[in-house]
Amino acid sequence: MRITVPQPDTPDIDLASIDFFDPNWYATGDPHPVWAQMRRDAPVHRQVLPDGREFRSVTRYQDVRAVLRDHTRFTSERGTLLSILGGTDPAGGKMMAASDPPVHTALRTPMAKVLSARELRSGTPRIRRIVQRMLAPLLDGEPWDLAAAGAEFPIMFTGGLMGLPESDWPRLTRLTTMAIAPEDPDFRDGDGALAAAHHELFAYFSAQVRGRRQDPGDDLLGFLVRMRADGRALRHDELVYNCYSLLLGANVTTPHAVAATVLACVENPDEYRRWTADRSMTPTAVEEGLRWASPANHFMRYAVADTKLSGEPIAAGEAVVAWLGSANRDDRVFAEPYRFDLSRNPNQHVAFGYGPHYCIGAPLARIALRLLFDEITAAVEEFEIAGPIEHLASTFTAGIKRLPVRAKLFPDAERLLDRARSEDGPIPV
Fold this sequence. Notes:
- By secondary structure, this protein is an alpha+beta fold.
- It has a single domain, classed as CATH 1.10.630.10.
- About 45% of the residues lie in helices and about 10% in strands.
- The chain has 18 helices and 14 strands.
- A five-stranded mixed sheet has the order 1-2-10-7-3.
- A hairpin with a 2-residue loop joins strand 5 and strand 6.
- The chain is globular and about 60 Å long.
- The model has no long low-confidence stretch (mean pLDDT about 95).
């Protein structure tokens, strides 16, 4: 999805002409001027699809947080993504991401402990090695597709953390992208791509879970098999749904934060020079990259009872879509929201969601992104775009699928990256 700055003299847009349900609009259109107008004039916008299904689009920061925070007003159990609007989510009440308290709390509490920053810190050296190997092709001086490389980045640490065989990682990466971008021509493997991706992923994790019953192992999948939620073991379907959710969450958001941040640095070279001159900025710079990218584009909820947002009535049963990319540009909260500011503070973005469903993988994503950009800012003096940029056709993920770049490296970069490239074989877990 393109990230642009709305101009003050831009004529008003006919909101009835915008199809927020169309994934191709996010690949070729420009949502930011539309969202800016909606925040100003139509913060709770209704769209009715040709088949009669309808949903409300919520674009202001405080309304987005209200929808994501309050499960007593807005439930997750009927589905959390536009792709299943109007249907019944079979994972409702079984998958952490598609459940409300107390079920959600029972599932999340033990998982959050094992996915905390403290527990994950021991994996830092391995992730740094993964990063160095990922960046090694920059030494060739040829155009390098950073988006394609970034797409393979999360599975290298998430797959290892979950204990999934490395030979399966490429297929799992493609399947998870198919699940969130089934209309994208690069991921449309025939008709019914979404159903096919779900079927294959659920079958895969079903087999993985069965294989762990006797010897769960010490990895994350083994932890889930041994885990107790309110004193009971998880059922087979609960294990499958939650394995799927954890992998999907990692694979379809983190790489797009990388690509969008690098592209923003190319477009704002003074900011990138500030960063390379002072690499202690990395934690705040990563947060600004997350705000800027907002890779998780939306989450959906259903109103539990009649309620209001921004004074607008919402009836019980209505679908409400909270647009995170819009909330993260709300000038009621963010000063100069269209300025890429790597030292922005405070920066209370909602790129990881908000409330009970705040992304459980956020600590791992932050560790990985900080290590990646710590290495990038040490190695790369300057990026330049080396070919056409292509965006993902997806309502859920605001993503870049092709970002060819060349890099001018710092003198010390070759020693580090060449060593990483020369090391063969898998990186030890």
